[in-house]
Amino acid sequence: MSSVVAVPQHKLSETPNSRAIEINDWVIIASTNPISSASECDALQASLGFPLPEMTFGSNYLSLEHQPSGWKMMFDTHNALKCVKKGELGEGDGGVKVGYADAWLKSRTDPGTNLPLPVTVAAKHYDWTYTMTYPGHHLDSAPGTDSPSSSIQWIDADQDNPSHSIPLSELTRPDPILFYAEIPLFEDELHDNGSSNLLVRIRVMPTCIFILSRFTLRVDNVLFRTHDTRIYHSFSSSPSLVIRQLSGWEAPYDGVKRRLPSRHDLTPLTDANFIAKVLTELPVTESQQIGARTRWRGLRTKVEIAVLARDGP
């Protein structure tokens, strides 16, 4: 029989559009609001310089602060969309064209000609799939970076140090959940060619904080793509540290479709959890090396840590 986990002292508070928890020197706030108004969208679009997703939750955010060190981290819509590539897509950007593009060209090309098909290029001045590898940002970040300008920096984790990895066994234990929130940042149906969305989840248990920020892309008949940012902190870590794991996967559309529980039911292909499960269960050579042959730079798994406080004076 598993031992009972002691629940630390904590304080919950709530407003009409936000919830917060104060626990073990941390202050965490999750704000969820309606879809941005027309005027809010106009201001945000002017700032970003490209059209917004159809459903943009511009006022939503998740913030967490470690009070003793002053370390602050945040996930919000504006900074997430700033990670979308503007201008012509290049090597590593993972550019995608819709599945019917080549078929459309072939239907308009004389089948008897020896001329090659014209090269298709994106007509938009931004990545229309809203692909991103947004890892969250720091409130004191220098412009264009996600690292804090303070002395606390993200450094590569030590693969041989067990305290530098996220303990899945702890996260799957049936411990009480003291605080939980889902914060949607945006969603777009890509002009009926698929779906692109970013959702942030957080749960606080008696022993730890865990955040999952997941970007999911489906381009019908072309590919599936997922990018996860996982943040983990154990209240008992010594020295006190935060672990961040960044992972990206992709696969051709048909490769995921073949793994449907029933070939007559396509509903799971709209489920971000099903997509992530399939992509992460594929061999690494398929999902993080070959992918959908886009050469997207997000295909990787990287683990890093931020040490918030060290033992001793």
Would you summarize the structure shown here?
Helices cover 16% and strands 33% of the residues. The longest helix has 11 residues, at 38-48. The protein has 7 helices and 13 strands.
List keywords for this structure.
7 helices, 5-stranded antiparallel beta sheet, globular, 313 residues, alpha+beta
Record the SSE blueprint.
Blueprint: E1 10-15, E2 18-23, E3 26-31, H1 38-48, E4 55-56, E5 61-66, E6 71-76, H2 77-81, H3 101-107, E7 155-156, H4 168-171, E8 179-188, E9 194-204, E10 208-219, E11 223-234, E12 240-252, H5 253-257, H6 272-281, H7 284-290, E13 300-309
Antiparallel strand pairs: 1-2, 2-3, 3-5, 4-8, 5-6, 7-13, 8-9, 9-10, 10-11, 11-12, 12-13
Q: Can you give a write-up of this model?
A:
The structure is a single chain. The chain is α+β, with helices and mostly antiparallel strands. It is 16% helix and 33% strand. The protein is built from seven helices and 13 strands. It has helices at residues 38-48, 77-81, 101-107, 168-171, 253-257, 272-281, 284-290; strands spanning 10-15, 18-23, 26-31, 55-56, 61-66, 71-76, 155-156, 179-188, 194-204, 208-219, 223-234, 240-252, 300-309. The strands form two sheets. Strands 4-8-9-10-11-12-13-7 form an eight-stranded antiparallel beta sheet. A five-stranded antiparallel beta sheet has the order 1-2-3-5-6. A hairpin with a 2-residue loop joins strand 2 and strand 3 (26-31). The longest helix is centred in the N-terminal third of the chain and has 11 residues, at 38-48. The radius of gyration is 21 Å and the shape is globular.
